[in-house]
Design goal:
- By secondary structure, the chain is mainly α.
- The chain has one domain.
- The chain has 4 helices and 2 strands.
- The protein has a two-stranded antiparallel ribbon with strand order 1-2.
- Helix 1 runs antiparallel to helix 3 and helix 1 runs parallel beside helix 4.
- It is elongated.
């Protein structure tokens, strides 16, 4: 059984979006923000941005957060707008969240090594 939260759709009609989809969309956004913040901390400790696309914008004040935030919001919006009986959107977003969780865990490992807290 999945909990559903009402959301106003086109013309004011209410559609139901599962709590699981809201959680996935929110998780994706948070993981992207954590990735940017941790990457900046690691760069401050002498590290480098490994992603060639983000390398172009990581040194700008708001560009990385804006770029990753917009992409995460777009993916989240597509997830929330997809038909609730389509599981592909849920599985694909979960896979992206897992990939970002791996990136965040790697960033944590790099941070611990760079800060001398890990042998």
């Amino acid at each position: 059984m999945t909990t559903e939260l009402g959301r106003a759709g086109p013309g004011g009609a209410t559609t139901n979006v599962s709590a699981q989809r809201w959680f996935l969309a929110f998780t994706l956004l948070i993981l992207n923000v954590v990735d940017v913040v941790m990457t900046r901390v690691i760069i401050g400790l002498g590290g480098k941005e490994a992603n060639p696309f983000m390398r172009q914008v990581i040194d700008r004040p708001l560009a990385p957060l804006a770029l990753k935030g917009m992409i995460a919001v777009l993916v989240g919006a597509l997830l929330l707008a997809s038909p609730k009986n389509r599981r592909f959107a849920d599985v694909a977003t979960l896979a992206v969240c897992v990939a970002y969780l791996i990136v965040v865990c790697w960033n944590l490992f790099v941070f611990l090594r760079a800060s001398g807290r890990l042998g």
